[in-house]
């Protein structure tokens, strides 16, 4: 399998190569790629700036399509852990996605449960259940299944289209080289004293496909509570995946002379977060006191 | 070494046995135990209700002592990683505490650094540096050392007394059986929808002395966002130590049909916290949305 | 106009009186009330427990109706500030709702803007724009209008049904006496010291229809950080409306001897919140340090 | 009374004028100003950069003074609402401070209560009770009084010195023109969707000495959730005082199509905060979802 395609190269292909490259983002629906090419008219002088721009353009075309065309798109997807999977007649993309979620190695019981769900869903709504499963566990999938069976047909129609857009996004990420605009920053604030947390040690790790953590950086906050290096990750190092900060909050407050318990409430604070958009700025800060903290996806 | 003493038994000992049992809480200062016995007059009909009550009584006696007596108390402590340690002439309590912090296995350089710090501290303040080290790392100790050298003598005098109270607390915890009043509760709130998080899976683990995590409970939140079992830990299971919650936030929001990224920002949320007071109620909740969360020591 | 009807009385009416009483909750669609009566079969021995139960039953009937019936329901609503309003041919309910939002006193320009929006919306989606306006300002309505014009038809179809359910809820609240199950509680936590905030003064006010605040209670937190009275509001006093807590955070931290600035960052902390469901438990806590705080709708 | 003195002018005065200008920052203790002048040796080529720098230098001199000198400094302060006040023999500074706190208009009972407190405090600790009262209410003062009477002598000695530093800071602020480095910024984050809150309306008001709010700015957040103007206040407009943000959170979420209650939990969110250091950067953000929010003193 070749490496990912650059946005520059994609922008200079002809329509058929364009569709061959990214048309698969929407299951068995090359028309989405075709119309997108006509709309964007990509070229060396009019390059596609980012995967996000391309995805937004493709998604808009789907959103503007009429109900029947959307219904066809939905039904062009295979059941999760369904007959097509057993018969090994999935598209490459679906095959990889379902296997990453472990749907190709279900027990008899699990398989039966999925079949039952798929049938119940189809008989209620008249179309197939769609869920972006690349990063989902069996538990997550079954929980979503149960919950969504309670929705109305319209809610599910919308939900399926939303899931399809999400699947397309993840497929484009495997095909294309993201624009070099994403990076990760951090900030630690001491909410007990209302000032930036100075000289706090932080470690950043990345979770491998096998679920192993690997250290990719060690940092110390400066007097503004930020990383002396400014950005923790940039460029190619800033890629889709699951990351973990570990903040040495205990050492920091001990140094500050805070009134800590013999066994402090907080010592090392772990923070696990996912990066879905490698072209975006992720600001993942920590607001902490000796007895509590909060964090969020900032920008 | 015998098991911990019950508060009932302690309450029915005579004064000398009382001092023998708990007098060591304050380094080489049996007078604290002696006066405490006279004040509390413990007996079968007037038992000591909790370690907290005993500790408060002992601490008050120290706080009310005059400056010279406090200075003697401070100076009755050995240097951290100092000559006494090398000469193996520490009290049993100090010996155990310093070894738990790894101070009995310092490198040449570390030892030199500690000696330098101890001397600088004593020459500036005229008394020894005191820090409750049972649960501290070398890093924490050295950071505190550096930070506290910047204080005024009075601030350090107060700080040392505070540390001595903390040491006494931890010593009493190793000697006595805590009152059976402590327990751990949890609550998960979905701040995106403003309702309790129903049906979220939570695992509770405990960190062993060797730093290994061991599962001690698996829970699912009820419709009020609380544990169906109410309390996660009670009685003897609720002991001093370091614990870890893992909240399956990703599964919960997937089930709720929240708009999640292909690689969700939050999936499994880990929360590591210490329990210092086994007689107290610890409420350790999670307030979460798909893009952020906060936690704190509640009650 | 008579006082609100009790759930007991509603439960013992015959079908036609039932529909006369609550059928108007869904605009010009008595069928919703009729089917609801058949489903619930209310009686003295089978009373309707709460407005929430009734509303859920009515909403379910709408959700299960087919698309055409839902479309009729949507289109049975008048334009906001539309011809029907000018011609004064609104239902009593719509008339009151639109006037509360100030839509009966628009300037020429505003009227033109609404007309333009209504037409744009109808020409794009083929049905009328619906928004629960009883508590909305012109700004809110116009902002929603602009935002929703960007949605897909399906999204708007769902959005309109959701708004209709909200309108029905608010109409039922004006018709019926809520079950006596709702109450308001508070909790103040000191996140700097990790303990409940003891002895903090709190005032509760209620916003009148004219936007005037009136004190309805003064409280002091107990050692658990809760109101000594437990509940701040219960029964009939706990009604739909806008409320305001004022927490004397500055006095509390001054008393605690916290290191505060000469002009403290926090002094009196105001917290304005709305109560929409008089049958529910609202827990509105404050987590505060001298330099920050957070609050949320708890339960 | 002349306008505030510029740091440039202060830096070029001789020692006696320097002491005349700022020596009063520490009650009846010109020696602090004298030693400070010797240390800083201010001049046109070596100007004092900020009030903070000057205050830190003066505070350090006090901290390094011996216990007796500190005790003299403490005891050079008058009782709060004490005989000196009645006899009108206070320094100008103390007189203004005590009157701002309303201590010059106490009832018989209040006066008696203060006298009782002052006597209890002096008989326990041997020196006078000191509290920076310029921005404190009678309630705050009495609560601090009661709380601090429980401390040890050393704790109170430290507390008094800390209060004296705070008093000096506030006195310097009335004498000198602050450096032009302070400003106010804001950021609004939508924690429900994990993105900056775009197009939210915010109003900034300032509380006058008479407790009246006056609008000083209206803002709208940009796509990064920040003020298009970047800074809300800078230069002379950014002065010591009490300010209020009002965030139109309800309009924002209505526009976002969030599932809001008929009577939304959050509509206009008020946030009252004090600015103590006009030379500093105050970042006062809002993290909000439809059902909760948090804020803090950032930087």
From TrEMBL, chains A, B, C, D:
Pathway: Purine metabolism; urate degradation; (S)-allantoin from urate: step 3/3. One of its GO terms (molecular function) is 2-oxo-4-hydroxy-4-carboxy-5-ureidoimidazoline decarboxylase activity. InterPro entries: Hydroxyisourate_hydrolase (IPR014306), OHCU_decarboxylase (IPR018020), OHCU_decarboxylase-1 (IPR017580), OHCU_decarboxylase_sf (IPR036778), Thyroxine_BS (IPR023418), Transthyretin/HIU_hydrolase (IPR000895), Transthyretin/HIU_hydrolase_d (IPR023416), Transthyretin/HIU_hydrolase_sf (IPR036817). Substrate binds at residues 187, 226, 296. Residues 184-298 form the Transthyretin/hydroxyisourate hydrolase domain. It catalyses: 5-hydroxyisourate + H2O = 5-hydroxy-2-oxo-4-ureido-2,5-dihydro-1H-imidazole-5-carboxylate + H(+); 5-hydroxy-2-oxo-4-ureido-2,5-dihydro-1H-imidazole-5-carboxylate + H(+) = (S)-allantoin + CO2. GO terms for biological process: allantoin metabolic process; purine nucleobase metabolic process; urate catabolic process. Keywords: Decarboxylase, Hydrolase, Lyase, Purine metabolism. GO terms for cellular component: peroxisome. It comes from the Eukaryota. Residues 13-172 form the Oxo-4-hydroxy-4-carboxy-5-ureidoimidazoline decarboxylase domain. Its EC number is 3.5.2.17, 4.1.1.97. Belongs to the OHCU decarboxylase family. Catalyzes the stereoselective decarboxylation of 2-oxo-4-hydroxy-4-carboxy-5-ureidoimidazoline (OHCU) to (S)-allantoin. This is Parahox neighbor. It comes from Triparma laevis f. longispina.
């Amino acid at each position: 399998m070749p490496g990912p395609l650059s946005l520059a190269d994609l922008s200079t292909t002809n329509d058929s190569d364009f569709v061959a490259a990214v048309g698969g983002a929407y299951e068995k629906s090359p028309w989405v790629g075709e119309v997108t090419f006509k709309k964007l008219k990509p070229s060396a002088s009019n390059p596609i700036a980012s995967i996000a721009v391309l995805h937004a353009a493709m998604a808009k075309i789907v959103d503007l399509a009429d109900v029947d065309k959307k219904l066809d798109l939905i039904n062009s997807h295979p059941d999760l852990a369904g007959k097509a999977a057993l018969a090994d007649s999935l598209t490459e993309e679906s095959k990889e996605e379902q296997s990453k979620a472990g749907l190709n190695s279900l027990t008899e019981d699990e398989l039966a449960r999925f079949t039952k769900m798929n049938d119940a869903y189809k008989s209620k709504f008249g179309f197939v259940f769609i869920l972006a499963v690349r990063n989902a566990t069996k538990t997550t999938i079954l929980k979503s299944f149960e919950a969504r069976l309670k929705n109305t047909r319209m809610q599910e129609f919308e939900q399926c289209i939303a899931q399809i857009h999400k699947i397309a996004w993840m497929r484009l990420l495997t095909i294309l080289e993201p624009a070099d605009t994403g990076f990760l920053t951090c900030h630690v604030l001491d909410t007990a004293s209302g000032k930036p947390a100075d000289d706090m040690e932080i470690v950043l790790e990345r979770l491998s496909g096998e679920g192993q953590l690997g250290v990719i950086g060690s940092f110390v906050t400066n007097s503004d509570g930020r990383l002396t290096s400014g950005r923790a990750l940039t460029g190619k190092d800033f890629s889709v995946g699951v990351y973990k900060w570990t903040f040495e909050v205990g050492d920091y407050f001990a140094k500050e002379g805070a009134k800590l318990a013999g066994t402090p409430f907080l010592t090392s604070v772990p923070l696990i977060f996912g990066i879905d958009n490698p072209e975006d700025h992720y600001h993942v800060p920590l607001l902490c006191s000796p007895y509590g903290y909060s964090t969020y996806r900032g920008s």
